[in-house]
Design goal:
Blueprint (H helix, E strand, L loop, with lengths): L3 E8 L3 H13 L5 E4 L16 E2 L10 H20 L3 E2 L3 E5 L5 H13 L4 E5 H7 L7 E5 L3 E3 L1 H15 L1 E3 L4 E7 L2 E6 L2 E10 L5 H7 L6 E13 L1 H4 L5 E4 L11 E4 L5 E4 L3 E2 L13 H8 L2 H9 L1 H12 L1 H11 L8 E14 L9 E5 L2 E6 L4 H20 L15 E2 L1
Parallel strand pairs: 1-2, 1-12, 2-9, 5-14, 12-20, 19-21
Antiparallel strand pairs: 3-8, 4-8, 5-7, 6-7, 10-11, 11-12, 13-16, 13-17, 13-18, 14-15, 15-16, 19-20
Length: 417
């Protein structure tokens, strides 16, 4: 027999799941909400293992759900931090072109930022040196809207709100989801939960939870590990705030960069290498089932063939500290290998289509009492409060509700599957 009965069961207590619980409490204050988390704490994976950057929205295609949610979510995240007393700093960042070959892409990013309403400016070398005296580069974009925060701290505040208005069950790994009269029964390690509606915010396992709920998998999560180093205190002075390279336009990663952390210190990274487990935070972490799931997926094989050279370069940088240092020295030439010590890695849940394409936008599907957040990689943490509203919009459609939220105005890939 179920040990819990609720109106909505949310799978995953990362920042998107917790923000969704908060959004439901605002729109439907009478709803009983339970969040199911397989770990013993919130923010255990992607949310608690990223670089803590508050993204501006400069990189994303104008009009996309990712762009709109990032811009709206950033504003609301900062307001939440101010309301809850969460440490944060809108310190700005620079995106640096180190040679003339990178100028066209730098200018394209600037135009995209302008289209998205981001506060940014093209700057010359002299102004770059004022902002980041130790950064190499011939030109840059100064992005005033970028900042830093601890997303784990944000999640603790959201979890505290949830406990006042709903339930958080930890140690509740989802084993199965069954149809039942008036809803779904979610079988977990902590017992069964009967819910009228289920929302899947499972991140690294979102595709598997979707399949448990009966949805087909048009895309599969492929895990990419991002590895970081921390700068020594003496080297941290070389970076005042955030220093980014011009990203490879064919790859949905932003490249190895320098980030001042809200708790102090500077980290550099991440690279982007295939993880041999969905939660493979070290090179030696191998889960045979996860690895086979990736290697036998046609979409991954097509992706690997398309980006073989980039993949080999990223893997070499993972294995060779010297190669990692050379990448950093393109941005800050004074960096030395002795300045770097390993820092905790993260794993990005990237949805990959069967055609080998990396799904670029956020994807939210809904059908028959289940809402699946199928793809929510970076900048999902920044965008989480706006993504949550898009998720609750999907829930409202299942409810047949006329409730609508003003922003984001259109829903992009939010669709009935």
């Amino acid at each position: 027999m179920p040990i819990e009965t609720s109106d909505v069961a949310i799978v995953g207590a990362g920042i998107v799941g917790l923000a969704t619980a908060d959004a439901i409490a605002r729109r439907h204050p009478g709803f009983r909400v339970v969040v199911l988390e397989k770990e013993d704490r919130v923010a255990a994976h992607q949310t608690g293992r990223n670089s803590g950057v508050i993204h501006s929205g400069i990189y994303y295609k104008p009009g996309s759900l990712k762009a709109r949610c990032c811009i709206d979510g950033r504003r609301r995240l900062i307001a939440l931090c101010e309301e809850e007393g969460i440490a944060h700093d809108v310190c700005g960042k620079v995106i640096v072109a180190v040679d003339d070959r990178e100028r066209p892409m730098l200018e394209a990013i600037f135009r995209r930022g302008q289209a998205n309403g981001v506060r940014c400016a093209l700057i010359d070398r002299a102004r770059l040196r004022e902002l980041e005296p130790h950064a190499a580069g011939i030109a840059a974009i100064h992005v005033e809207d970028a900042g830093i925060v601890s997303y784990a701290d944000v999640c603790e505040k959201l979890a505290a709100r949830l406990r006042r208005r709903g339930r958080l069950l930890t140690g509740a790994r989802v084993r199965a989801i069954h149809k039942d009269t008036g809803g779904r029964v979610v079988e977990t390690d902590a017992g069964a939960v009967h819910a009228r509606y289920v929302i899947n915010c499972a991140g690294l396992h979102a595709d598997r939870v979707a399949a448990q709920g009966g949805a087909p998998r048009p895309a599969q999560i492929v895990p990419f590990r991002g590895e970081y180093y921390a700068l020594s205190p003496s080297a941290a002075r070389l970076c005042k705030n955030l220093i980014y390279p011009v990203p490879d336009p064919s790859f949905p990663f932003l490249g190895v960069h320098f980030t001042r952390m809200i708790e102090g210190g500077v980290e550099c990274g991440p690279n982007a290498v295939l993880a041999f487990a969905r939660e493979g935070y070290r090179f030696r972490d191998v889960d045979a089932a996860d690895l086979l799931d990736t290697l036998l997926y046609p979409g991954f094989l097509r992706l690997a063939a398309r980006h073989a050279r980039t993949g080999v370069r990223e893997m070499w940088r993972s294995l060779s500290k010297a190669a990692f240092v050379r990448t950093l020295q393109r941005l800050v030439p004074e960096i030395d290998a002795a300045d770097l010590t390993p820092a905790p890695a993260g794993v990005r849940a990237q949805a990959v289509g069967r055609d080998g394409s990396m799904i670029d936008d956020f994807v939210i599907r809904f059908e028959d009492r289940v809402v699946d957040v199928c793809n929510a990689p970076s900048p999902a943490a920044t965008a989480s409060l706006a993504v949550a509203d898009a998720v609750v919009d999907a829930l409202d459609r299942l409810l047949g509700s006329t409730v609508r939220h003003a922003a984001p105005e259109a829903r992009g890939p939010t669709s009935r599957s």
